[in-house]
């Protein structure tokens, strides 16, 4: 049984699965249920200054994809809407009963040194294991010069991080917003400010849909909508890229990362860890299915690690990063070609029309709906295998190398003939 | 009437249940899930398997995209009786049989049920997706208001021709009205659909107006620009063949299954339809199955089907056969009846069927015997029309041997199915239109 113990910048937990700062960690009741279910830690719902914010109704929009609910979730909720004192008392009580779990406090206050220096000691007194600075909330808070409004300006990120670091000895994680053009600018700023780790991603600015009768963005609040933050399975690819970008950035110097965005099972968690995350956080999947999903996340990760001979999370962490290269370093001499298994083929023709209409006219129809690849035309783009509804019917077969390995970068360096 | 043939065997509630929709319509939620199962195949085999060539992936995609009107129009533009066909087609041997998901092993998309979902939407709202072109001045006579005649009439009316349908019976619909099992076209769906279809305008119906002689056909040809024959089958096969008399065939209680079904379909109150206590049905086609199922649903206690060959040879589909077998109908295979015995107390009435089952003689008590051993075209228009295998000979577009006379549906070759009749009617309409609108014609 693999050792799943996790350490993010000195914050330890029995497994790498934390609940992200969000409704699942809004109050003691939920958090106790989560910890009893087996979650390794929680990042408490973001605390702010009193008086607390006021939330609207409704608050969530979701994307259903072909019958699958909540492929993506969008929210227009703000930070904790409960008085600070209530949250602090509950944090203290939970931490006392769960000394082995990671209990992290998420913070967001106005962008002034006094505000940050005031709240940090109050929270530290509860016995929490560390702080997460919420510079990511993409709606509501940024209009008040908090959240993403800070996260989008590297200088502010650095400055606020510095204030917090000067106020506490506990580990400080800076949560990054994906609503920026270059995530490295934010990450590097956090590092310069003294962050012990970064976490990412917060939600992506979005309009989840439009009610075509009411002619209003969704979700609707009394006939109107606003942009919200998008998360859930749909955002995983965005999150993985940003995480990997920081993971391989020399200036980040291997600063620990807590990864999140669309994690639903152990498999996505393993992907984040393989791209450099020390631990992961989950929000939408818990909101969709309840806390017990952590059981199969723990079991699945452990079984997979056993099957691969990985003893600890450190054996997995960053393993895929070395293969995350720039496009210019990819081998141009490598070729694959599509191969259709005619025994598995059900004759739907989706590969044909995809290639014919939108790719390289490389799949011919032979009598009897027999679809075959014209190898000379196939460029190995992989579209057909993605649209084929039958598992493993179309495979991409690596071809015998006909030329030596050469990347675009190498090709550009070659002297002109 | 024989004591054991009686009406009102079951109470009204039970009868209502027995003759209600056999397959409940899809809920919107189920339809959405089912529509999402369609792969939207390129060159989809289901389209090829539909005799009317409905763009099945196209209409299903519209359902998935919540455009039910568009879905309905897609269906109806290829098959104007798409509502009936959704209910009566043996989809397991047509579109659904060809669905690639069958090959994939996870069950065909329920195309028939989805088709009903979309066409019901259009019909329940009385939407008329089609409009009539300006009157062409051409008049076409159609003989028979069954599926073939109606489909042809609609397609011609849409193209601006004037259409008159001559129908022998007092109501339109053909076997949709008098033949198909009641629980497949529950309620008054057949008539509602026809009323909707006639909404295009330009179609007149002359009821109780048989065209049953060569002379009557000549008159029609003389008074119309074209004639479409869609008379279906007038003849029902008898057990006695030529000199080989079948002992007892003329006994009371022995009748053609189609007559029994027609009586049942015409009865507004199913409690008024008499049925035997022990019913024997002879035959292995869908008519035999329907007769047996409906006799049972009327309250017959014992219903036995006698089929002369094995299960694989039946012309009824496997689905229909299993449905019957799981509905309490006993089917005896390799069962060849050779005579009926008369009742001792009532000598004019049948009491038993003598049959060889796998060569072994058996006697099956019966107070009602329904014969369903086949129908045929009885050539009421004489030999002025060339025949092929006993039916009116036509070219692939439906042209007969007589200039300006076309034919389709059960009276011509091809499978005896509603959808095939619709396809024939549509194809003939296009041929008539093309022929009439040719310059100089
Ligand atoms: C009991 C039974 C059950 C069936 N169940 C199914 C089923 O579940 N699914 C399926 O797809 N198919 C089924 N069929 C077959 C289907 O009903 C027929 O294939 C279809 O109705 C043929 O259409 P048609 O227009 O050619 O003929 P018909 O439906 O027979 O219509 C012919 C019309 O012409 C009229 N007519 C006849 N002679 C004259 C004349 N001389 N002058 C004027 N009018 C005339 C008739 O009164 C009738 O209205 C069933 C058939 C039977 C008998
Ligand atoms: C309803 C809702 C409220 C959230 N509130 C906060 C918050 O208060 N503070 C914060 O840092 N992130 C907040 N988030 C973002 C999540 O912590 C997390 O970063 C994001 O949902 C991506 O993870 P996921 O794909 O597993 O949901 C919220 C997300 C949701 C859905
Ligand atoms: S891999 Fe791309 S080019 Fe090759 S057959 Fe498939 S779709 Fe066409």
Automatic annotation (TrEMBL), chain A:
Signal peptide: none annotated. CDD domains: DHPD_FMN (cd02940). Pfam families: DHO_dh, Fer4_21. GO terms for molecular function: dihydropyrimidine dehydrogenase (NAD+) activity; iron-sulfur cluster binding; metal ion binding. SUPFAM superfamilies: 4Fe-4S ferredoxins, FMN-linked oxidoreductases. The keyword Ribonucleoprotein does not apply. GO terms for cellular component: cytoplasm. Residues 336-368, 369-399 form the 4Fe-4S ferredoxin-type domain. Belongs to the dihydropyrimidine dehydrogenase family. Keywords: Iron, Iron-sulfur, Metal-binding, Oxidoreductase. It is an enzyme of class 1 (oxidoreductase). The keyword Cell division does not apply. PANTHER family: DIHYDROPYRIMIDINE DEHYDROGENASE [NADP(+)]. PROSITE patterns: 4FE4S_FER_1, 4FE4S_FER_2. Heterotetramer of 2 PreA and 2 PreT subunits. Involved in pyrimidine base degradation. Catalyzes physiologically the reduction of uracil to 5,6-dihydrouracil (DHU) by using NADH as a specific cosubstrate. It also catalyzes the reverse reaction and the reduction of thymine to 5,6-dihydrothymine (DHT). Gene3D superfamilies: 3.30.70.20, Aldolase class I. This is dihydrouracil dehydrogenase (NAD(+)). NCBIfam families: PRK08318.1 (NF006183). It catalyses: 5,6-dihydrouracil + NAD(+) = uracil + NADH + H(+); 5,6-dihydrothymine + NAD(+) = thymine + NADH + H(+). Its EC number is 1.3.1.1.
From TrEMBL, chain B:
Its EC number is 1.4.1.13, 1.4.1.14. Keywords: Oxidoreductase. InterPro entries: 4Fe4S_Fe-S-bd (IPR017896), DPD_II (IPR028261), FAD/NAD-bd_sf (IPR036188), FAD/NAD-binding_dom (IPR023753), Helical_ferredxn (IPR009051). GO terms for molecular function: glutamate synthase (NADH) activity; glutamate synthase (NADPH) activity; iron-sulfur cluster binding. Residues 29-59 form the 4Fe-4S ferredoxin-type domain. Pfam families: Fer4_20, Pyr_redox_2. It comes from the Bacteria. This is Glutamate synthase (NADPH/NADH) small chain. It comes from Endobacter medicaginis.
């Amino acid at each position: 049984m693999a050792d799943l113990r996790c350490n993010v910048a000195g914050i330890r937990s029995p497994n790498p699965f934390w609940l992200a700062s969000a409704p699942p960690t809004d109050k003691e009741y939920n958090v106790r249920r989560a910890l009893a279910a087996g979650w390794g830690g929680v990042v408490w719902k973001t605390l702010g200054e009193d008086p607390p914010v006021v939330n609207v109704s409704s608050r969530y929009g979701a994307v259903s994809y072909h019958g699958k609910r909540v492929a993506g979730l969008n929210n227009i909720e703000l930070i904790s809407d409960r008085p600070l004192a209530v949250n602090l008392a509950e944090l203290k009580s939970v931490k006392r009963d769960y000394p082995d779990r990671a209990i992290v406090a998420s913070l967001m206050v106005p962008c002034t040194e006094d505000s940050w220096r005031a709240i940090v000691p109050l929270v530290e007194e509860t016995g929490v294991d560390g702080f997460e600075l919420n510079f990511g909330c993409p709606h509501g808070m940024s209009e008040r010069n908090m959240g993403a409004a800070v996260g989008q300006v590297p200088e502010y990120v650095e400055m606020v991080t510095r204030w917090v670091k000067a106020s506490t000895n506990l580990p400080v994680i800076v949560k990054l917003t994906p609503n920026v053009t270059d995530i490295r600018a934010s990450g590097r700023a956090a590092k310069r400010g003294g962050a012990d780790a970064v976490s990412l991603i917060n939600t992506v600015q979005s309009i989840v849909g439009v009610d075509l009768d009411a002619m209003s963005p969704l979700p609707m609040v009394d006939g109107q909508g606003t942009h919200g933050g998008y998360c859930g399975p749909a955002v995983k690819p965005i999150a993985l890229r940003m995480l990997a970008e920081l993971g391989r950035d020399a200036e980040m110097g291997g600063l620990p990362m807590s990864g999140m965005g669309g994690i639903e099972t152990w498999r996505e968690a393993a992907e984040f860890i393989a791209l450099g995350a020390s631990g992961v956080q989950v929000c939408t999947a818990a909101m969709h299915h309840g806390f017990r999903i952590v059981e199969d996340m723990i079991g699945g990760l452990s079984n997979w690690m056993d099957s691969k001979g990985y003893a600890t999370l450190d054996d997995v962490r960053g393993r895929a990063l070395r293969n995350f290269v720039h496009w210019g370093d990819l081998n141009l001499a490598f070729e694959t070609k599509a191969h259709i298994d005619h025994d598995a083929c059900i004759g739907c023709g989706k590969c044909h029309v995809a290639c014919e209409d939108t790719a390289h006219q490389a799949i011919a129809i032979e009598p009897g709906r027999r679809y075959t690849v014209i190898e000379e035309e196939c460029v190995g783009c992989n579209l057909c295998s993605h649209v084929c509804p039958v598992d493993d019917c179309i495979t991409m077969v690596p071809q015998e190398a006909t030329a030596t390995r050469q990347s675009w970068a190498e090709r550009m360096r070659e002297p002109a003939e | 009437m024989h004591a054991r043939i009686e009406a009102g065997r079951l109470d009204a509630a039970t009868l209502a249940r027995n003759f209600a929709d056999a397959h409940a319509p899809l809920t919107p939620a189920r339809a959405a899930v089912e529509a999402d199962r369609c792969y939207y195949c390129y060159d989809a085999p289901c389209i090829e398997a539909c005799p009317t060539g409905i763009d099945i992936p196209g209409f299903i995609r519209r359902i998935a995209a919540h455009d039910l009107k568009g879905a309905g129009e897609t269906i109806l533009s290829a098959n104007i009786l798409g509502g009936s066909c959704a209910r009566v087609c043996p989809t397991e041997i047509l579109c659904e049989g060809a669905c690639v998901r069958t090959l994939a092993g996870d069950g065909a998309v329920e195309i028939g049920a989805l088709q009903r979902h979309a066409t019901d939407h259009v019909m329940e709202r009385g939407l008329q997706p089609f409009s009539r072109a300006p009157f062409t001045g051409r008049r076409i006579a159609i003989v028979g208001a069954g599926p073939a005649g109606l489909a042809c009439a609609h397609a011609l009316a849409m193209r601006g021709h004037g259409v008159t349908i001559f129908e022998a019976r007092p109501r339109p619909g053909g076997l949709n009205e008098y033949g198909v099992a009641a629980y497949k076209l529950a309620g008054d769906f057949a008539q509602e659909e026809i009323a909707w279809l006639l909404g295009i305008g330009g179609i007149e119906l002359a009821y109780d107006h048989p065209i049953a002689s060569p002379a009557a056909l000549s008159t029609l040809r003389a008074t119309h620009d074209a004639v479409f024959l869609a008379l279906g089958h007038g003849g029902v096969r008898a057990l006695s063949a030529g000199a080989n008399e079948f002992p007892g065939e003329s006994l009371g209680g022995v009748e053609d299954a189609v007559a029994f079904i027609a009586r049942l379909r015409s009865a507004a109150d199913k409690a008024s339809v008499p049925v035997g206590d022990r019913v024997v049905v002879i035959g292995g086609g869908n008519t035999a199955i329907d007769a047996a199922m409906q006799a049972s649903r009327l309250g017959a206690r014992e219903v036995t089907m006698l089929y002369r060959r094995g299960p694989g040879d039946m012309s009824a589909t496997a689905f229909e056969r299993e449905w019957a077998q799981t509905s309490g109908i006993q089917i005896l295979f390799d069962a060849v009846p050779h005579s009926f015995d008369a009742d001792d107390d009532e000598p004019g009435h049948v009491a038993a069927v003598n049959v060889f089952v796998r060569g072994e003689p058996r006697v099956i008590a019966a107070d009602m015997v329904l014969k369903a051993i086949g129908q045929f075209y009885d050539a009421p228009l004489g030999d002025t029309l060339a025949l092929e295998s006993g039916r009116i000979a036509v070219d692939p577009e439906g042209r007969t041997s007589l200039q300006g006379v076309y034919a389709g549906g059960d009276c011509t070759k091809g499978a005896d199915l509603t959808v095939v009749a619709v396809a024939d009617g549509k194809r003939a309409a296009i041929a008539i239109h093309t022929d009439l609108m040719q310059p100089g014609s």
